Amino acid sequence: MHKSRLEAFSDGVLAIVITIMVLEMKVPHGQEWANLKELLPVFSSYVLSFLYVGIYWGNHHNLLHVAKKINAYIMLANLHLLFWLTLIPFTTAWMGENSFGPNTVALYAGNLTCAGIAYFILQKSIEKTLESNHKFRVALRHHSVKGIISQVAYALAIPLAYVEPVVSGLIFLVTALMWIIPDRKIEKVLDL
Amino acid sequence: MHKSRLEAFSDGVLAIVITIMVLEMKVPHGQEWANLKELLPVFSSYVLSFLYVGIYWGNHHNLLHVAKKINAYIMLANLHLLFWLTLIPFTTAWMGENSFGPNTVALYAGNLTCAGIAYFILQKSIEKTLESNHKFRVALRHHSVKGIISQVAYALAIPLAYVEPVVSGLIFLVTALMWIIPDRKIEKVLDL
Amino acid sequence: MHKSRLEAFSDGVLAIVITIMVLEMKVPHGQEWANLKELLPVFSSYVLSFLYVGIYWGNHHNLLHVAKKINAYIMLANLHLLFWLTLIPFTTAWMGENSFGPNTVALYAGNLTCAGIAYFILQKSIEKTLESNHKFRVALRHHSVKGIISQVAYALAIPLAYVEPVVSGLIFLVTALMWIIPDRKIEKVLDL
Amino acid sequence: MHKSRLEAFSDGVLAIVITIMVLEMKVPHGQEWANLKELLPVFSSYVLSFLYVGIYWGNHHNLLHVAKKINAYIMLANLHLLFWLTLIPFTTAWMGENSFGPNTVALYAGNLTCAGIAYFILQKSIEKTLESNHKFRVALRHHSVKGIISQVAYALAIPLAYVEPVVSGLIFLVTALMWIIPDRKIEKVLDL
Question: Cβ distance A105 to A161 under 8 Å?
């Protein structure tokens, strides 16, 4: 009951975040392919962020599935996570419109970093409501390794953006793909 | 449980996609009927895309209804479908603002093609979780025929747009209407 | 099950329609009260449409509550209703930005008329699934009277807009208020 | 049943309100940090409003949780609350774009005041459906004290904005934080 509204609200916010990003792809005035080509950086940043928000939705879905009860701390931690995710359309658009310029990549990486930390806090606040030997807690260790790798990747993407922005973009992409590959261990526990 | 959140998220995304398209109909500055008439191509493209997104919602609804369990592949396939559908407001606006110019019709047809393929992949990934002689699998064969006709129609609309854009628009419309006519076979199976 | 997704999708669309209208209230550049005063027509049209969409949501909620099963015709009738409701942000903005100019009032009245007809069709398609002496069918007769009064009011608002637009605005307001007053008969049947 | 749709619609509206505010943070044209710095007032107003809408969602969630039945008055009171909340993106943007100018702060405070009153009316209309000695009614007294403090704070923020806008901003922030601290008494009653 409690859980279902937290999920509904989060689903709503994530669905809107993922969809309004497309509004940043301003329709070009001409009808030539060349007009469309100029949108390539904006489109690339859209694809990246679509992947990230989609992954967050999937992980959020699995995480909440395990939660037994929703207390006020979990509600706050969830709101905190949503805050950073609602900023993604902005940082995505800044990065896209400036063709992955160094500062914009740094801000995007910072946004992903904050969202990652917020997710970790949410995970911890949910774990606290589970017994210490709960099978999901064990499975989540694997999850946490992915989280650490991601944070390192975001940190690397910042200096590299000042050398070659494309490399930073690829780092974001590879990190996203690492999350997309289904996590067998967690799936087994969740009985997906 | 799992299924309900996948549906809620998809419903959210589709509801937003169908609604933000109307934001592309920029309110004209004058208050004469002539000012409104200029919006006719944009309005036509809105009607078309409203139909398509509405149809996708209906089919998605029927498809998910049958799904017994949601695994990671179905979640990915669903996200993949949503990706192409979130691009519809953009391709619709480009086509509308350029009065169904050839390139813009080609892109729109391409978008519908990709969405169609993504839907097919989702259908297959759900079918895999059903027994081979499941009555829904049998009913879906009819569905697949419609899918193939649609893909052919989209492919035809591209070259025809370079001859007469209105014809391509009509092809999109007729294809949409083909889907809107309720599918008795599937309905019977779903006991609608 | 079927019903819940139809409701969720409709709730999503109506929630977005009601909320994106506020995006049409462009933030004025100055910070004087005078800057705000210029927005008065836009704000008035927002209030009107908020009322109408809110009423539609409430009535839709009651109507779907009674529906026993959702067939393909109900799904189409529902989509048809949503189509006219998604146009409300556009017609609202055109009317607001042109200070309730005659043509814009006529279009707004036309939009409400189409939505009213679409609602009537949805009601009929749901009634068909109920037994002929169902208590809700009896209660709906009262509802239908309100519907006819509304259609007459919209029809009156059009010529009056060419005489005095404020009168048309008041007609819209009074019609909305007529719907807002809770309908005891229907409530009793629905056991609200 | 009734309740779930009221919640779903409200969740939808609140999710959209919280998310479209980010659209007001117009992506700057340059890619320097200085370009971003100009957005600081807009960003601050976004953070404030995110907190407020998030808090309203949480309180709304708790309030509706207790409601036994939803009558027409509760539906109207809920719609009335949503009306004031949908205006928040507008008042937030006006305040942010004018760097917390006095008039804009006054309007924002007015918006929060109206939302607060609307929430109070909703609370009362739900309380009426509960028995007079219901434990939740007792717990809500504490809640009402917070409500009164907030109204005083909003009233103070208006004159202070004409002296020093930053102080008003801080008052808004402190008031929000007062609500964010979990309310043990209500939690116990709700068994969170």
Answer: yes
Residues of D in contact with C187 (CB under 8 A): 71-72
Q: Residues of B136-172 as b/e, b for ≥16 C-beta within 10 angstroms?
A: bbebbeebeeebeebbebbeebbebbeeebeebbebb
Phi, psi (5° rounding) for residue D98? -110, 25
| Amino acid at site D35 | N
Find the domain containing B125 and state its range: 2-190
Alpha helices in A38-98 (DSSP H): 40-66, 72-86, 88-97
CB neighbours (10 Å) of residue C32? 11
Establish, for the pair of chains A and D, how many residue pairs have beta carbons separated by less than 8 Å. 84
Nearest by CB to D19, from A13, A70, A98: name it.
A13
| pTM for this predicted structure | 0.91
> Burial letters for A51-68: b for 16+ Cβ neighbours within 10 Å, e otherwise?
bbbbbbbbbbbbbbbbbe
Q: What is the pLDDT of residues C140-163, one digit of tens each?
A: 776 778 889 999 999 999 999 999
Taking contacts as CB-CB distances below 8 angstroms, the residues of chain D near A76 are 180, 182
Residue in chain A closest to B18 (alpha carbons) equals: A19
Q: What is the CA radius of gyration of chain C?
A: 18
User: From CA A189, how far away is CA A143, in angstroms rounded?
Assistant: 13
The sign of the dihedral angle between the CA atoms of B110, B116, B120, B125 is: positive
Alpha helices (runs of H) in B67-101, residue ranges in sequence order: 72-86, 88-97
**Domain total for chain A?**
1
Helix (H/G/I), strand (E/B), else coil: C98: coil
DSSP letter, residue C87: T
CB-based contact C80:C11 (threshold 8 Å): no
B55-76 pLDDT per residue, tens: 999 889 888 888 878 888 898 9
